[in-house]
Amino acid sequence: MKTALLLLLTLAVASGPARALQCHVCVSTSNCKQPQTCPASSRFCRTMTTVELLSGNLVKKDCVDYCETKYFQQGQVSSGSATTLCCQGDLCNAGRSSAAALSSATLGLTLALGVLALILGPSL
Question: How buried is 23 (Cβ within 10 angstroms: 0-12 exposed, 13-18 middle, 19+ buried)?
Answer without folding.
Answer: buried
